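Team,

Forwarding the record for the chain on the shared tracking sheet. I've put the sequence and predicted structure together so nobody has to dig through attachments.
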Amino acid sequence: MTEPEEARSPWVTLRWIALSTYAVVLFLWCRKYGVPIGHDYIFLWIIIGLACASIGRTWRSFVHLLVDWGPFLIVVIAYDLSRGWADSAGFPVHFMPQIDADKVLFFGHVPTEWLERNLFHTGIVAGFSGGHLAFAVQPTVPVRWFEVVFDLTYLSHYLVSFILAGVLWVKSRARFQAYVRRFATLSALGFLTYVVFPAAPPWMAAQQGFLDPTVGRIGGRGFAWLHLHTVRNMIDTGTKTTNLVAAVPSLHAGYATLVAITLWPTTPRWCRPFLVFYPVLMGLTLVATGEHYVVDILLGVAFAFAAHAMWNHIERWWQTRKGGLSREAEPLGSRINLSF
């Protein structure tokens, strides 16, 4: 079908009607229930959107949708389940190595302590919970603008990686597959580290007396200011079923770095500083809100580059091997360039 014929095809009109309806329904759903951050909801909405975008294309598009996204969903669900199991493997929880590493990097100081003390002026506040007197670490100043930035950055962790996967799938199935390989490898490396080296985040270290007791899990006030209470509640609910000592490496920083690595080759030079800024801002957010140490962030970044470098090497080997085959014996799709 030529381009003018495709533009006049009734399937194109149906595709745009389906996509417009999808956008309206998603907006109304988010307005009522909040931004979907659970992987089940995220995958559901992305797959529905991609199915709408595939209307009028070849039937293979729907087959590829199932073949590509099914395993991706299984990998993500398996990681979610295994991450909660990792803390029951029996290895001792580490508190001091991360603190000592940050002190070496910052001349005897722990950045989380300094940032929370100067940005949030945290203090221990008494209150009643369940009819009993309880104490919690809370900021003692009104909500600041940077808290909104921090919370939106933290929220992006649940969305950006999967939205990028959807965009890549529409534009280039080969790039989507390459990205998913790196994403799955990064997740596996993180999981293995969580098993053999369970590590406490700063807020937990403070509760156990390893850091200033005014260090806490500060975050979410920006959501309240934006009237996104549902998002904060969903994040809090999710943390109750995850591994609380899976702090090394920071996969929040790792995934943000992988997004930047993936987009780097096709991004104009003038936009590339923004790609670098994204993982940097994610790291600052995590350190300032008591979720991670700086060393956790650096290891997450290193793991992302390691996963990317490993697959670059494997994909070059694939290409070299396929290039040595005769044209008649060359497998279907082998001429697709999988390298970045």
